[in-house]
Amino acid sequence: MRPITSKQLLVLEEISSHQHETGLSPTMQELGGKLGVNRVTVYGHVQALLEKGYLENLEPGASRGLDITPEGSALLNKPKVARHQPFELVKKATSNPPPTFGLEGINIPLLGKIAAGAAIETIENREEINLAQLLNANEETYMLEVHGTSMIEAHIESGDYVLVSRYKTPRQGDIVVAVLEDETATLKKFYPQDDGTYILQPANAAMEPIYCDTLEIRGVVSGVIRRY
Questions:
Q1: First-to-last C-alpha distance (Å) of the chain
Q2: Three-state SS string across 165-186, please?
Q3: Is the pLDDT of residue 91 over 70?
Q4: CA of 106: how far to CAs of 14, 88, 127, in Å?
Q5: Which entry of 7, 150, 165, 189 is annotated as an active-site residue?
Q6: What whole-number distance in Å separates Cα of residue 216 and Cα of residue 228?
């Protein structure tokens, strides 16, 4: 059974409820009215549910052509605690700001250059590198440990540490720490839409984007640290 977000589950539950009450499937506008979101947002959730096999379109092009598949019914019949299969989380969000870390006084010797392609002559040219300057870290920077594989195509692996600039304004396509309505946090690429909604895009072709109406940005990723 493919993972489903909490918003997609609400859409599926509302379709089921409307069918039981009226004998018909709801239109996109009716779904949006019930859930308090616009039609564009509803459409995104419905498309995801169709692709995941929880919905089917019995009459393509018809406003009431949606129906719940056996897989969707099986999901709705599960106990509520078991239904939620949240998208990949980085950490549980808290109201307190994350702790910062101090690198200002840490200098590491830089001894020269090393070839990663054709061999070059070894040249030792000792100098000191300040980690805070190298990582562009300051008092507004914090780190998070990544769990999961949603950002592997952006070269961020599970177990890596991401450096996050807490107060930087995100731009289209930036990797952000986003806190969702259910107070969970996720690491994704940030794409604001013209209608005021947002798409959080994983850097993993096997995973679905997250569509949301509201979110809180807790910072923009500025670097990655990996231990071997």
A1: 34
A2: ECCCCCCCCCEEEEECCCCEEE
A3: no
A4: 55, 34, 13
A5: 150
A6: 33
Q: Kindly state the tokens that stand for 214.
A: 């509201």
How far is 220 from 228, CA to CA, in rounded Å? 25
pLDDT tens column, 9-43: 889 999 999 999 999 999 988 998 988 888 888 88
Q: Taking the model in full, what pTM does it have?
A: 0.53
The residue type at 98: P
115: pLDDT confidence band, cut at 50, 70 and 90? low
For this structure, is 63 an active site residue? no
Give the model's pLDDT for residue 98.
52
User: Which secondary-structure segment (H or E) carries 50?
Assistant: helix 39-52
Strands 175-179 and 184-192: antiparallel
Highest mean pLDDT among 55-64, 65-74, 84-93, 96-105: 65-74
For the chain, domains (ranges, CATH) are 6-83 (1.10.10.10), 91-97+137-225 (2.10.109.10), 102-135 (no CATH)
Token representation of residue 130: 């300040």
Both tokens of 222, joined, read: 């500025």
188 a catalytic residue: yes
- Active-site residue among 7, 52, 188, 189? 188
Burial (CB < 10 A; 0-12, 13-18, 19+), residue 183, is: exposed
